[in-house]
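Design job #97: recover the sequence.
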């Protein structure tokens, strides 16, 4: 016992300083404030006093914020009994339990974390007196995270909404509310509700900009998450402003670049790569990587991620040998520092396979891909998207190197395709479905090279699907469910099963980042199989119309052929991630061919678009228009199409922005493709039952589409129809 109460003036000041500190904006200051508060408490109180335990909690929080989870957990376990025995320190006891739950969740012990968070919420309800609303909101947010890990998405969203609502009532509104909103965005996206996630992020940015300040550093979390989603949706130009805003906020708060903002600059470089701006991406990496190296070390996860990004840019700029050397260095580093079963050991071999593939070294590409598949086989269930993607990459290398009989390659490609589409049918628009998207292009290429035309056309349609297609399909399925109570009931059961599946996959993902020798992969695989069978049983009850509303059903070649006639043709052109695949049908015949990856399709489209955008006839690049026509419609195809009066085009990638009517069929003669053929665009391949295209006389109708800027219209602004 103390003879008289100590003078807490300085201690209270230090406590207030810690409470006001931001672990993200200035981690060093956060830890220093914790250490100072503990040192002052030790000057005033005996070693067994709960005040010492309460300030030790600050130090443990600083350790957790710095990623020192084991040390933080040990300290939390030591002080929790001390605080529990002191009723006056009930708030600190709750905060210590909060910290323990956070660490357990981080370490993958989601059941223990959930139990703590439910205990805390119950304690807040039973003992509301003296409860700090911010602490209550934090506990609700933590409980939401635990529910998500257990696949209880609706419960997670409900608790998350409660946390946000409580936070918004506080004055001032804490910056944590931005993080809780950022979490909500992730919850929605990871469950396949992509458009809702984007809308939520945009709404939160507007609302919180007023509540906590548009320049608050924690707003960076919202901008970063929105940018990451837009990037994954293959919308790099939309993602870049969001990512830029995120790192600018962090750098403004910190007085300059730090490892957090540099990591976001690496994300920006990844978006530049997706947008085809490879040299700019390398310049960004040149600035960001040294900052990460200096603050975290050249072999830290973030430093290695920066080098992975550089490797992809090197491949794209023709520096394949340099990329392969870097890939081998990264494999050596990761093998030395990461445990068996860590996902980045396999990912590093994927990158070596891609570099070797770019160099035309098929044997080396297959060898690296085979090692990656072997590693994943021991880490993942057989139908996991990452394993399927790795197997598709290996098959692509074997196909290019003619390493196996064609019949075996096609049989394996068909089995892989069935597994990939099975995953995609589980949840359209999900993060996993997006991850496996490149595999469709690789399989379409293999099928086309080996003459499996029908298989190639089906895989081509999957490769052509974008995140926008998925979002529109999800919206259409929701409208269909609203009009069909039976379908609505099935869709509701499906959502619950998918939420449970997400919880199982979260356990798997946590183990891939921190492998545990005791992890029961076989047991988890059985649970996933049972979940898949339950979804399949539901799907088996769907009528054909209901199935079409919920699942993507690609067209058959017969549908493509039926859409044409003797004087009409339908052509689908798809970017396979390098080469292009063209499937054309009409007049009773079908043609399918690959356009090589080194054909300058994107460059020619860029030249042609630039000359069109200039808006004057004398600036039109006829040479580019003629060469592009020759590349897209070579030899016999051009001769065949010359006899058609109507051409329907389905095209993605850079060709999605190409007005095909302005192609030049004959460089030595005047005129355009639109003068010979009526050209129309389609958003997807035709299906059985679609309305027949208008068979009226060509040239009977003129539809002009144009835009006028600054009061001036160029001479090429209008698109012409045949015969006009």
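Job complete. Output follows.
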């Amino acid at each position: 016992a103390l003879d008289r109460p100590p003078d807490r003036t300085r201690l209270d000041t230090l406590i207030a300083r810690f409470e006001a500190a931001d672990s993200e904006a200035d981690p060093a200051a956060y830890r220093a404030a914790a250490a100072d508060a503990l040192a002052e408490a030790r000057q005033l109180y005996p070693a067994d006093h709960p005040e010492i335990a309460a300030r030790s909690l600050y130090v443990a929080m600083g350790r957790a914020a710095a990623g020192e989870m084991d040390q933080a957990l040990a300290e939390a376990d030591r002080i929790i009994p001390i605080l529990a025995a002191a009723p006056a320190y009930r708030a600190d006891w709750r905060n210590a339990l909060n910290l323990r739950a956070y660490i357990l969740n981080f370490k993958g012990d989601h059941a223990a974390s959930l139990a703590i968070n439910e205990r805390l919420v119950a304690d807040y309800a039973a003992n509301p007196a003296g409860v700090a609303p911010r602490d209550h909101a934090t506990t609700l947010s933590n409980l939401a995270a635990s529910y998500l890990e257990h696949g209880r998405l609706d419960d997670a969203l409900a608790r998350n909404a409660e946390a946000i609502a409580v936070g918004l009532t506080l004055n001032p509104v804490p910056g944590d509310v931005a993080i809780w909103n950022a979490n909500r965005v992730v919850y929605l996206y990871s469950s396949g509700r992509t458009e809702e996630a984007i809308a939520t992020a945009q709404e939160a940015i507007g609302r919180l900009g007023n509540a906590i300040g548009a320049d608050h550093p924690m707003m960076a979390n919202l901008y970063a998450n929105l940018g990451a989603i837009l990037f994954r949706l293959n919308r790099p130009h939309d993602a870049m402003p969001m990512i830029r805003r995120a790192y600018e906020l962090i750098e403004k708060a910190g007085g300059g670049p730090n490892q957090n903002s540099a990591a976001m600059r690496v994300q920006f470089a990844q978006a530049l790569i997706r947008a085809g701006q490879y040299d700019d991406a390398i310049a960004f990496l040149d600035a960001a990587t040294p900052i990460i190296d200096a603050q975290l070390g050249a072999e830290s996860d973030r430093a290695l991620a920066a080098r992975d990004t550089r490797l992809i840019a090197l491949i794209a700029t023709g520096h394949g040998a340099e990329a392969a050397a870097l890939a081998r260095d990264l494999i050596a580093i990761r093998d030395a520092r990461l445990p068996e079963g860590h996902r980045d050991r396999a990912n590093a071999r994927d990158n070596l396979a891609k570099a070797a593939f770019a160099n035309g070294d098929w044997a080396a590409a297959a060898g690296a891909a085979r090692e990656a598949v072997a590693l994943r086989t021991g880490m993942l269930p057989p139908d996991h998207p990452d394993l399927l993607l790795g197997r598709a990459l290996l098959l692509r290398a074997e196909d290019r190197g003619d390493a196996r009989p064609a019949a075996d390659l096609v049989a394996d490609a068909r089995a892989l395709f069935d597994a990939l589409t099975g995953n995609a049918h589980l949840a359209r628009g999900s993060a996993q479905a997006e991850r496996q998207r490149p595999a469709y292009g690789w399989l379409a290429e293999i099928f086309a090279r080996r003459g499996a035309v029908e298989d190639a056309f089906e895989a081509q349609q999957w490769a052509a699907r974008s995140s926008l297609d998925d979002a529109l399909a999800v919206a259409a399925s929701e409208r269909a469910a609203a009009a069909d109570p039976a379908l609505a009931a099935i869709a509701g059961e499906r959502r619950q099963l998918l939420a449970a599946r997400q919880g199982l996959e979260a356990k798997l993902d946590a183990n891939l980042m921190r492998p545990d020798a005791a992890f029961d992969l076989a047991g988890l695989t059985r649970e996933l199989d049972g979940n898949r069978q339950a979804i399949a049983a539901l799907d088996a009850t769907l009528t054909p119309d209901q199935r079409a509303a919920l699942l993507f059903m690609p067209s058959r070649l017969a549908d493509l052929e039926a859409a044409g006639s003797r004087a009409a043709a339908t052509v689908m052109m798809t970017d396979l991630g390098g080469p292009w695949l063209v499937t054309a049908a009409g007049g009773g015949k079908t043609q399918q061919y690959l356009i090589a990856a080194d054909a300058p399709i994107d460059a020619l489209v860029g030249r042609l678009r630039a000359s069109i955008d200039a808006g004057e006839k004398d600036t039109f690049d006829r040479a580019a228009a003629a060469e592009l026509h020759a590349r897209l419609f070579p030899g016999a195809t051009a001769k065949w199409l010359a006899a058609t009066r109507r051409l329907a085009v389905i095209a993605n990638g850079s060709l999605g922005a190409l007005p095909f009517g302005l192609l030049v069929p004959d460089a030595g003669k005047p005129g355009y493709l639109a003068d010979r053929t009526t050209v129309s665009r389609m958003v997807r391949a035709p299906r059985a039952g679609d309305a027949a295209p208008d068979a009226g006389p060509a040239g009977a109708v003129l539809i002009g589409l144009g835009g006028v800027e600054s009061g001036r219209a160029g001479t090429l602004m209008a698109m012409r129809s045949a015969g006009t």
